[in-house]
Amino acid sequence: MKNSRLRNFFFAFGIIAVVIMLFTFNVSPQQVADDLKRAGYYFPLILLLWVFIYFINTCSWHVILSSEGKSPVPFLQLYKFTVTGFALNYVTPGGLMGGEPYRIMETTPFLGVEKASSSVILYVMMHVFSHILFWLVAVVLFICFYPLSTMIAVILGVVFCFCLVLSYLFWKGYEYGFVVSFTRLGHKIPYLNKYISHFSSKYNENLERVDSQIALLHNQEKRSFYGALSLEFFARIVGCLEVWLILNILTSQVNFIDCILIVAFSSLFANLLFFLPMQIGGREGGFALAVHGLSLSGAYGVYTALITRVRELVWIVIGLLIMKIGNKKRKNLK
Fold this sequence. Notes:
- With 334 residues, the protein is mainly α.
- It is built from 14 helices and no strands.
């Protein structure tokens, strides 16, 4: 009953967010229709591409859950939780704030709350860490294949160092866990420190067990660790096919390395504006700047961002709809 109420809350929140985004969409319905007509059969191909990308994401999570034996969560259920989790993340300001509680809620009956929490945290860490590695690879590709001005070299150097620092922090988090350290850091936040201190003292043993399960994958199940990370990184590369398909509608003067760089640097720019739902405005600006940086027309970037935005809206609706499908009552594990 509790899960049903929470599921209804997530569903209602997602629907409200979609309605708000549709009303604040700064493109006329006629322009969207014209651009989709121009895309032709490429748009259904892009939608199908994300069936495969979400499949890879689900495989990564499945590898984490299978590190100690057969996964208790059926793969199709896991696929559903993956798609709906990403849909909720798309509509949540800040990202990773709607989908992760939903995934923990749905997998708790299969795994118990501690195992569910640790598996979701591990998956999120893999997802974000693969993004950081993707940015590092993009910097190397740019240096290898494109001419460098002084300003570009400085920017790439800053990005590279920033990603190296983040990689180090993530590696330490994998090695020792980071939930307890994160809550200790929360003790220093004004106004919230009292509540965080109460929470951490009450659930300290649970938090330590979650940390031990996070560290277990890196320290003892290295095959599963690198397998899950490789799958997430592969999903990033496959995702660049979306930009390649869109740009091929407009021009034949673009190669796959260009698309990797466009996706990498536009996502970096968009993530700097993480507080916006769907990174509204940041994604479009990031695409335009990235495309312009590769000496392509900025209009290509705006068109690419628009088609990508429509694809996201379609998958958000799909994710919200399947949230209400196949929800059998399951006895919660203690």
